[in-house]
Amino acid sequence: MMAGEKGAGQEKGFKLLGILDVQRTPCARDAILHGAGGSVAAGMLFFLSTSRVRRSFDVGFAGFMLTTLGFWFYCRMNNAKLRVQQRVIQEGIRNKVVYEGTSLDPTNRPRADTPSGPS
């Protein structure tokens, strides 16, 4: 067995604080990256306006927490909405397959602008 093949079966993910597997959890990676950006921005802006180092760190940490949680919930809500839309589309496709060619097919209804009988 070669050295490269040893880890091919198992993929290691990055665990944050030993509990959150960032690679496998939906929205975790993006939320943490946005949180890091939010913390840097909040801390630097507060430091530039007040020149207080300790308070700037506190503001940066609060910015990280708020940005991470805010983006986490935003992303999860969008994922839930997307799953609902996919479920509705799949149901519609199933119904089209079931009703295609029958009298219940909505695409098979006679139109008002075309004559229904022979001319």
TrEMBL record:
GO terms for cellular component: mitochondrial inner membrane. GO terms for biological process: mitochondrial respiratory chain complex IV assembly. Residues 100-119 are annotated as: Disordered. The keyword Mitochondrion applies. It comes from the Eukaryota. Pfam families: Cox20 (PF12597). Keywords: Membrane, Mitochondrion, Mitochondrion inner membrane, Transmembrane, Transmembrane helix. It is found in: Mitochondrion inner membrane. The chain crosses the membrane at residues 31-49, 56-74. Belongs to the COX20 family. PANTHER family: CYTOCHROME C OXIDASE ASSEMBLY PROTEIN COX20, MITOCHONDRIAL, CYTOCHROME C OXIDASE PROTEIN 20. This is Cytochrome c oxidase assembly protein COX20, mitochondrial.
